[in-house]
């Protein structure tokens, strides 16, 4: 029996990599300094795993931005618009890599970034490969080779990790019509052959080939592509042992295919999907083969301590059928999605800590599960006893269960999920009550989180400034933002969210049943990280969470200030969620807390309230058969949070990073009076489905991209609004940016909003003339 993990977090325990990369971007350091820090992080990660006793240690799981973008460089799939950069002597391969991730705007270049999208159902984002009809591949980057050599030189039993050619193609996008990306496989396989041959020459024995699509529903051609990939690799390299790694769901839909695949090891995720997965694999043809089964028992997506009793029972089942040598113990997926080290946390109490396990602790769990299933020492057995005790104590803890919260959740009725009147009636009432102009202008909520604002919060947290000083500074910032919004001429204002560290963590910090960490950083995209709160118990709102700031902002202006809340599904999706009750129940508890906040905002005179749900699509299960069930409870949770108010109160929702084609009915069922969406990059094409569906409620299609500092021209925005008018009746159109402005700087924000308001004014004038 062997142990391994599929990947390890690369941000560093204190986000050292983030800081080093941002210093490099800011020209405060050079590539050599950045490479040194990166090498040190890799070394520490490998040594940590080696010291823990992990048998096969992943290499090439490190990345300066994203592992899919690394693969794009590996196979030389650099889109045409960056080709000139590769020939520029002043730019290194790393600079081109960062340009692909972030775009490049200098005196000489103005090149857009590659698209970024969600990595399956996680909060991690990858850079989408772009393919053209005459796409060619050639090995460009030596990253995996160099990192393999580096690991071997440090005495590490290195297991190179590569994204499978099949999954790589499936993750990408055809950028022109007339071909099928899967037909590019042969060319790609040749590059992999060259790279893997080099790894074999250097002494690699096991190679992990990530094939996450095996956990999804696959079409015939997709299955064929996967099959061809593995047949090719195993035929070309008969002496190498390939680990086919799947994760994030069960593989039962593809079991027949899996059993036909060659390879030394199959890795499955046993923390997600159908609970009968293991049994079904053990009963299948798999048992008659010689392949090893790697059991993904230690959760790579959540932070709860592993229940050893349960895991050992599963290991024993596998051992009974396959024998000890054909069973490995592993993390369910890469540990990229969990924080680095629980030991760094100084403020979590001991009881809570005894329930948790971060990446470093998960290494010990993997190793312990192996030793407990083979030759346990006295210390191992003692650790097992402690584990049983911790699991038992968590189950029984009085901190988790609140009868009145459970009771309230269990009495949710259908009437709680509906506004008093249908949208058509509400629209008449709200139009009369709010008296907004045609094409009302607004923003999505956050204004720039400047280094000063963040530093005030840091000082406040450290006790270096008092509550009063901190609040005064934030009040001043809010006041300036209201003044700016009035002066630029926006119709519906926001307070700016300056008091929030993150749109989820902020709520987690104020709700009962949540815990939050000091250093629990998880990479979201590039150098951007989040600290997902931990939902450990029944969720309850003891006090209003946003009321003071909203009411304060409203007191500064006669215009409407939108109340700004994060929705229940997004709070659930972007937190570490308790595993002892259905997600639906936890989501409803959060929805009730948000509902109370919505009602309090209304009582305090706030007329427009936005409940952000950017993660509703991301929460879709990977298998389509489960979509309906999820969408029903997710939409109901949103409606529960939104329906406690009178018809006059206008409820907005906001979604970014979403495609709506296959979920438009659910979006309409949410019945928000106004939905604002990210639209500018798709040049309003996202609206197609809203038009086709005859979406009845109001829509604010984003009219400029907030992910770039670029200020749009007035004409560009006018053109986009006119395009939107082709899809939506003008009485239903709102004008707003794609998303919040927290990652932007003030100068570009001010200019862009000025442009947005001017463009709207031009459109209004045209309408007046035509009337
Ligand atoms: C909309 N998005 C979000 C997602 N998930 C969320 N949970 N939140 C989101 O907003 N998923 C999809 C997208 C992803 N987008 C983003 C966008 C931006 C960020 C981001 O900017 N992250 C920041 C961290 C934000 C934060 O929590 N800041 C804290 C300060 C933390 C800090 O720097 N502390 C210092 C200590 C300072 C000191 O002591 O001097 C430290 O720890 O070293 C705050 O404002 O208080 C980032 O920096 O990455 C993320 C996702
Ligand atoms: N209200 C949030 C939504 C982000 S998706 C913001 O403006 O940042
Ligand atoms: Zn957004």
Task: Show the helix and strand layout.
Blueprint: E1 2-4, H1 16-25, H2 31-52, E2 57-59, H3 67-74, H4 80-86, H5 93-102, E3 104-105, E4 110-111, E5 116-118, E6 125-127, E7 130-131, H6 143-153, E8 158-163, H7 165-171, E9 173-174, H8 185-201, E10 206-210, H9 220-236, E11 241-245, H10 255-260, E12 265-269, H11 277-283, E13 292-298, H12 308-322, E14 327-331, H13 350-353, H14 359-372, H15 378-396, H16 403-410, H17 423-434, H18 451-461, H19 467-488, E15 492-493, H20 505-508, E16 511-515, E17 522-525, E18 528-530, E19 534-541, H21 547-554, E20 560-561, E21 563-566, H22 568-573, H23 583-603, E22 608-612, H24 627-642, E23 650-655, H25 664-670, E24 674-677, H26 687-692, E25 698-701, H27 714-727, H28 746-770
Parallel strand pairs: 1-14, 2-8, 7-9, 8-10, 10-11, 11-12, 12-13, 13-14, 15-20, 21-22, 22-23, 23-24, 24-25
Antiparallel strand pairs: 3-4, 5-6, 16-19, 17-18
Helix pairs in contact: 1-2, 7-9, 8-9, 11-12, 16-23, 18-19, 23-24, 24-25, 27-28
The chain binds the ligand CN1c2c(nc(N)[nH]c2=O)NC[C@@H]1CNc1ccc(C(=O)N[C@@H](CCC(=O)N[C@@H](CCC(=O)N[C@@H](CCC(=O)O)C(=O)O)C(=O)O)C(=O)O)cc1, 2-amino-4-mercapto-butyric acid and zinc ion (ZN).
Biggest β-sheet description: 8 strands, parallel
Bound molecules: the ligand CN1c2c(nc(N)[nH]c2=O)NC[C@@H]1CNc1ccc(C(=O)N[C@@H](CCC(=O)N[C@@H](CCC(=O)N[C@@H](CCC(=O)O)C(=O)O)C(=O)O)C(=O)O)cc1, 2-amino-4-mercapto-butyric acid, zinc ion
**Overall tally of domains:** 3
Q: Give the CA-based shape.
A: globular
Please report the number of helical segments.
Answer: 28
Q: State the distance separating the first and last CA atoms.
A: 78 Å
> In the CATH scheme, what's the topology name of the largest domain?
TIM Barrel
Number of E strands: 25
Briefly, what CATH class of the largest domain? Alpha Beta
As a whole number of angstroms, the C-alpha radius of gyration is: 27 Å
At CATH level 2, the architecture of the largest domain is Alpha-Beta Barrel
Mean pLDDT across every amino acid position: 97
Strand content: 5-15%
Helix content percent band: 40-55%
Parts with pLDDT < 50 across at least 5 consecutive residues = none
Counting helices, strands and paired strands, the structural category is alpha/beta
With strands numbered from the N-terminus, the spatial order across the biggest sheet is: 1-14-13-12-11-10-8-2
């Amino acid at each position: 029996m062997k142990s391994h993990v599929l990947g390890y977090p690369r941000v560093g325990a204190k986000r050292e990599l983030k800081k080093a990369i941002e210093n490099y971007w800011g020209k405060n350091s050079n590539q050599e300094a950045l490479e040194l820090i990166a090498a040190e992080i890799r070394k520490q990660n490998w040594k940590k795993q080696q010291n823990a006793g992990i048998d096969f240690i992943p290499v090439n799981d490190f990345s300066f931005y994203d592992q899919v973008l690394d693969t794009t460089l590996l196979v030389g799939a650099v889109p045409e618009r960056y080709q000139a950069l590769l020939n520029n002597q002043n730019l290194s391969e790393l600079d081109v890599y960062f340009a692909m991730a972030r775009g490049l705007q200098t005196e000489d270049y103005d090149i857009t970034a590659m698209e970024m999208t969600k990595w399956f159902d996680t909060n991690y984002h990858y850079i989408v490969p772009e393919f053209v009809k005459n796409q060619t591949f050639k090995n460009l980057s030596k990253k995996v080779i160099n990192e393999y050599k580096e690991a071997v030189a440090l005495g590490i039993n290195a297991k190179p990790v590569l994204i499978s050619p099949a999954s790589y193609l499936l993750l990408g996008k055809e950028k022109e019509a007339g071909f099928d990306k899967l037909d590019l496989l042969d060319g790609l396989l040749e590059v992999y052959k060259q790279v893997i041959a080099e790894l074999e020459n250097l002494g690699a024995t096991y190679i992990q080939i990530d094939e996450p699509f095996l956990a999804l529903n696959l079409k015939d051609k997709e299955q064929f592509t996967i099959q061809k990939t593995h047949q090719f690799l195993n035929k070309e390299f008969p002496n190498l042992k390939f680990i086919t790694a799947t994760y994030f769901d069960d593989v039962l839909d593809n079991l027949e295919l899996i059993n036909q695949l060659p390879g030394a090891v199959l890795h499955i995720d046993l923390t997600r999907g159908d609970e009968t997965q293991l049994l079904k694999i053990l009963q299948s043809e798999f048992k008659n083969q010689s392949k090893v089964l790697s059991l993904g028992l230690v959760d790579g997506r959540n932070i709860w301590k592993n229940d050893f009793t349960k895991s050992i029972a599963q290991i024993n089942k596998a051992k009974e059928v396959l024998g000890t040598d054909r069973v490995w113990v592993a993390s369910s997926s890469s540990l990229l999605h969990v924080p680095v080290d629980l030991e760094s946390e100084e403020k979590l109490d001991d009881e809570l800590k005894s329930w948790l396990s971060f990446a470093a602790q998960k290494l010990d769990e993997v190793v312990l599960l192996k030793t407990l299933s083979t030759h346990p020492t006295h210390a191992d057995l003692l650790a097992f006893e402690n584990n049983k005790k911790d699991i038992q104590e968590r189950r029984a803890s009085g901190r988790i269960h609140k009868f009145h919260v459970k009771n309230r959740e269990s009495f949710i009725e259908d009437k709680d999920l509906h506004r008093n009147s249908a949208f058509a009636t509400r629209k008449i009432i709200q139009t009369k009550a709010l008296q907004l102009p045609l094409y009302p202008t607004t923003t999505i909520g956050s204004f720039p989180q400047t280094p000063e604002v963040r530093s005030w919060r840091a000082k406040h947290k450290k006790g270096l400034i008092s509550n009063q000083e901190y609040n005064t500074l934030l009040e001043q910032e809010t006041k300036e933002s209201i003044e700016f919004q009035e002066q630029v001429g926006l119709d519906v204002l926001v307070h700016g969210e300056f008091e929030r560290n993150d749109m989820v963590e902020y709520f987690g910090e104020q709700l009962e049943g949540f815990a939050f960490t000091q250093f629990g950083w998880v990479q979201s995209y590039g150098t951007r990280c989040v600290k997902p709160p931990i939902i450990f118990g029944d969720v309850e709102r003891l006090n209003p969470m946003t009321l003071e700031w909203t009411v304060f902002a409203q007191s500064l202006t006669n215009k409407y200030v939108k109340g700004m809340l994060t929705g229940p599904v997004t709070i659930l999706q972007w937190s570490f969620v308790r595993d002892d009750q259905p997600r639906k129940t936890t989501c409803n508890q959060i929805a009730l807390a948000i509902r109370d906040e919505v009602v309090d905002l209304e009582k305090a005179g706030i007329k427009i309230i936005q409940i952000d749900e950017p993660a509703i699509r991301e929460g879709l299960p990977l298998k389509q058969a489960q979509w309906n069930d999820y969408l029903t409870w997710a939409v109901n949770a949103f409606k529960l949070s939104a329906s406690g108010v009178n018809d006059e109160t206008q409820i907005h929702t906001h979604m970014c990073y979403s495609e709506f084609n296959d979920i438009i009915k659910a979006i309409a069922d949410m019945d928000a009076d106004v939905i604002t969406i990210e639209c500018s990059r798709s040049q309003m094409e996202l609206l197609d489905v809203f038009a086709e569906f005859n979406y009845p409620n109001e829509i604010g299609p984003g009219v400029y991209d907030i992910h770039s500092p670029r200020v749009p021209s007035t004409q560009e925005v006018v053109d986009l609004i006119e395009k939107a008018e082709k899809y939506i009746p003008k009485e239903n159109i709102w004008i707003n940016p794609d998303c919040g402005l927290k990652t932007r700087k003030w100068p570009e924000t001010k200019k862009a909003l000025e442009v947005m308001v001017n463009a709207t004014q031009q459109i209004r004038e045209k309408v007046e003339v035509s009337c």
